[in-house]
Amino acid sequence: MLQKSSHFMREANLIDGKWVQADAGATIDVINPATGQKIGVVPKSGRVETRRAIEAADKAFQTFSKTTALERSKLLRKLHDALMENQEALAYLLTLEQGKSLAEARGEIGASAAYVLWFAEEARRTYGDTVPSPWADRRILVTKEPVGVIAAITPWNFPSSMLARKIGPAIAAGCTAVVKPASQTPYSGLAWGVLCEEVGIPPGVVNIVTGSASEIGDELCENPAVKKITFTGSTEVGKLLLTKAASTVKKVSMELGGNAPFLVFDDADLDRAVEGAMVAKYRNSGQTCVCTNRFFVQSGVYDRFVEKLAEACDKLKVGSGIEEGVQQGPLIDGNAVEKVEELIADATSKGGKVITGGTRHELGGTFFRPTVISEATTDMRFMKEEIFGPVAPVFRFEKEEEAVALANDTEYGLACYFYTSDLARAFRVSEGLKYGMVGVNEGLITTPEAPFGGVKESGLGREGGHQGIEDYLDTKYVCIGGL
Ligand code: ADP
């Protein structure tokens, strides 16, 4: 497996169809979070290399934007097939640098392929309009055109599928791209370059640059040839990019932080709620932007829910992601562990009770025990801050309105979940929750067919769904006169 994965593991930038090093030859180490050992290096690039990548993308756009939707759809279908044919090798590489279990990594590569297939289909449906004209001698046409060169900046928690949601619609629309993967997990990003080459996507259409986030980010934001920035990551960096992209009035899509609430009402199917809670909380060791950050449980089922959640938690197999059967890998780095420890210390100092977990795992390194904390209160830090780790704080509530108000008491608005068997409540609560995505009696709702994205400070734009390609298209109005 290692041998097959190493075919995809490139230690170079992809610019204009060539694998190249950073000008100064500088590199960044890539670490396996399960062992703390170095896997390899990637180029530490800056503005100059990024500018070259943008120039290559701009040049490629001149021809790629003229291809037909059907041609691009076929390329994307090939890309989908290549992802699935190499699912195992790509998943192995992903686990190696990211830490998640192989089962989750396989799932992520499958999700990447599913997004690419979705956009292969959407490529052929970027319809315009003909509009009834108010003038007898003129006609009104509205068409869609690719925006041009797009820049994609992606995070380490889903190093493959976050690129699928950006490269997929870019190619479908006829755009070209400059991509910067996260420095912790660059190989899964660079693997897209290998796949694109192998399926015949023309040189310069997808360029990949690794290195200094701020230098690469500044060039991508300030270079006028880039017409759109698409970013998945923290709200803090998202705000920075929004400000910088304003200098050249670029289109922007932002998938930022979340503070997902998970509400369990007295009338919920408790076993189903616990099952949903496990996936909504502990997937990827709690390191996803749609992971539950706060559980709100009605008093009638509070004790039973906490007990069942802790029982399920204790059954999770923690270990190195590449070992079969492991369900929870390490956290990404030492800072992540320290943050989780700080949040737990804050909670216990304010009356929170650790029901299970609460400490580093005996495996050492950045492994952390799946944790449940009861008696959570609104003065604790995880009411406002993203945990990004395997810790479930459980708050108690009495009334529906109280729970909805608490759930909405955050500047974030990405995903939320709630469990009830009352149909009227299902509608009332889903309409009351100020979030971009709502899971009703479901803890895992992401799929390419549906629009993923947030409101408030969780972001702008949607990825997936028929909406997912719109941000990659400009609308053009043509008035034909003298008829
Ligand atoms: P996370 O907390 O998930 O690491 P970040 O927002 O820090 O989220 O990182 C997401 C992506 O944004 C990564 O690819 C990272 O390298 C990049 N990034 C971080 N800082 C900047 C910046 N100042 N400009 C551009 N990109 C940045």
From TrEMBL:
It comes from Sinorhizobium mexicanum. One of its GO terms (biological process) is gamma-aminobutyric acid catabolic process. InterPro entries: Ald_DH/histidinol_DH (IPR016161), Ald_DH_C (IPR016163), Ald_DH_CS_CYS (IPR016160), Ald_DH_CS_GLU (IPR029510), Ald_DH_N (IPR016162), Aldehyde_DH_dom (IPR015590), Aldehyde_DH_Superfamily (IPR050740), Succ_semiAld_DH (IPR010102). Coiled coil: none annotated. Keywords: Oxidoreductase, Plasmid. Belongs to the aldehyde dehydrogenase family. NCBIfam families: SSADH (TIGR01780). The keyword rRNA processing does not apply. One of its GO terms (molecular function) is succinate-semialdehyde dehydrogenase (NAD+) activity. It comes from the Bacteria. One of its GO terms (cellular component) is cytosol. This is NAD-dependent succinate-semialdehyde dehydrogenase. The keyword Membrane does not apply. It holds the Pfam family Aldedh.
